[in-house]
Amino acid sequence: MPHTAPSHLPEGSRVALRRFTLADGPEFTARARESKDLHRPWLFPPYSDEAYADYAGRLIEDPARAGFLVCEKDGGGIAGFININNIVRGGFQCGALGYGAFAHAAGRGLMREGLELVLGYAFGPLGGLHRLEINVQPGNTASIALARGAGFRLEGFSPDMLHVDGAWRDHERWALTAEMRTSV
Predict the structure, then answer these.
(1) Residue 124 DSSP SS3
(2) How does DSSP classify residue 103?
(3) pLDDT in tens, 95-109
(4) CATH number of the domain at 15-182, please?
(5) Nearest Cα to 174, choosing from 134, 123, 141?
């Protein structure tokens, strides 16, 4: 059964969050194809309608995932996406973040604003998660800057952690807890 959430998602001054829908496929895949140079070798979002349907379907249906589109409020369309994967409840109350900006929106602070909205939502209305983690390849300086700027702390290094682009890749592990967010 899909996770249930309030229909109203947070909005900031320049972006608003909304859930993935299957109807977003044409815009999402067009933006992903335009952004290949920005994403590679770190990220491989879906580029075809079929791949998008599979990807979005998992985010929509799986209660252990929550996917958010970061949308420009001034009519600029989808700026990027932030997903909370591997949501574990019970004593852990944790999820793993994955995200990507699209090329037309990169470097404009839109993802930073979107990430702040997702963090507030994850530690609140989504069900009160306690901890969020981000796993980043060490050379992905833009992703590390986004994590650091949002208050995540570096907790460790994992060699050969995730299979990306045909090989097992090293990752830095970054984390943020609800207490860290409220103590700032």
Answers:
(1) coil
(2) G
(3) 999 999 999 999 999
(4) 3.40.630.30
(5) 134
Alpha helix positions (H), the chain: 25-34, 36-39, 49-61, 110-122, 141-149, 178-182
Q: How do the domains of the chain map onto residue ranges? A: 15-182
Give the C-alpha separation, 104 to 69, whole Å: 15
Global pTM value: 0.92
pLDDT digits (tens, 9 = 90+) for 11-58: 999 999 999 999 999 999 999 999 999 999 999 999 999 999 999 999
Q: What angle do CA 152, 88, 25 make, to 5 degrees?
A: 80
Per-residue pLDDT at 1 exceeds 80: no
pLDDT cut 70: percent of the chain above it: 95
